[in-house]
Description:
The protein is of the alpha/beta class.
Amino acid sequence: MNVYDSERMGEALNTAGYHPVDTPDKADMVILNTCHIREKAAEKVYSELGRLKKLKDINENMIIGVAGCVAQAEGEEMLSRAPTVDLVFGPQTFQALPEMLEELADNRADALEENGHIKKAKGVVRTSFPAEEKFTTLFETPRQPLVRSPAAFVTVQEGCDKFCTFCVVPYTRGAEVSRAAAEIEAEVVSLAQKGVSEITLLGQNVNAWLDAEENDMGLGQLLRRLAQVDGIERLRYTTSHPRDMDDALIEAHADLPELMPYLHLPVQAGSDKTLKAMNRKHTAEDYIELVDRIRAARPDIALSSDFIVGFPGETEEDFTATLDLVKRVTYAQAYSFKYSPRPGTPASEEEQIAEDVKSERLARLQDVLNAQQVTFNASQTNETLEVLFEKQGKKVGQMVGRSPYLQTVHVDADETVIGRILPVKIEKAHANSLSGRISSI
Ligand code: 5AD
Ligand code: SF4
């Protein structure tokens, strides 16, 4: 979501006369688009700001902005904690960037007049955003996409009403809002015309997407409609909640060849007691049954998940239930985290699990998940996979693409393959990627 939002900021700034450079030292403005989901992500912002301050000491005209959920959560406070910051704006306010820049320019002019120096100029803060306005201003402006890759993101839904007890998203991103089907389709058409062939639909709760005006159209139907768009060959969506995987969406996996056989379906934990305390509103068995139904619809689907270990109250027995669930489901890949208490969330007020217990459980879980990922990748050796080539690799003469299962695939080829979907015979499987040879061009 932040990658998409950053692209949108780039577009808004492009219209205001800015263009991207490769490194911060060449920039007139640097914006950190931040994440508040775990403490570690939030802390990184301040260490990064420390580095940027050094550049600003050399170029005092440089503008430093902090966007996203840390900005949303800290607001004005950020200006006093890090005086080097000029702009603070929340995740739903990036369209206002040109206007914020004008305000900053005025503040700088005032400071120059009053103190003979722009250093003391007042920063600009935009964090509040009424829900109705979020819907219209966030999405109404037609995009001028700066397409750099044949695979693009499109936000279809924002915010979350689920209130899992560990999570800040409902507070930082606000209430669930869906974008209208016609607008989404228009954006997909415009991306396809610019050469995009793969679209990933985004939302914190993407499968809760609903176009209430179009006969309660859900994500399954939306995917069917987007699969018809000329030039769109691959569709994906992320992130889903198990409770919103309805029959129409599962059927779409059975029927639509464009819908890629990969699904990120976070379960967080395997113990019913922990799931209840997390307010996930489903049991481990519900999740396993759901996975069985999805696999019946699309047998080769690769599954991915998020896990939290060391949630308050998690016993060794509860943790073992997570390991058992992982062994029953088997994942192609996964993300796992130590529980991180977040300000304002219910679970942060509970008695906490010791850090060394969390670390030990995380290591055990990751051993199992990594082994499953290695096995999954190895199962593709000698297979031929359709790969969409996206960009150059790190090595000279190497191109990088994605398999239908979202694996990174490296081949030796020239740039003419970028943007094409080509069959690749997989020769080697690594822990995090595959490599092979293009079978035919
Ligand atoms: N601590 C650890 N992990 C968290 N996540 C969300 N909130 C927390 C937290 N407080 C994880 C969940 C979620 C993913 C995006 O981040 O697993 O699915
Ligand atoms: Fe956070 Fe996802 Fe739960 Fe919403 S559904 S509260 S975004 S973990």
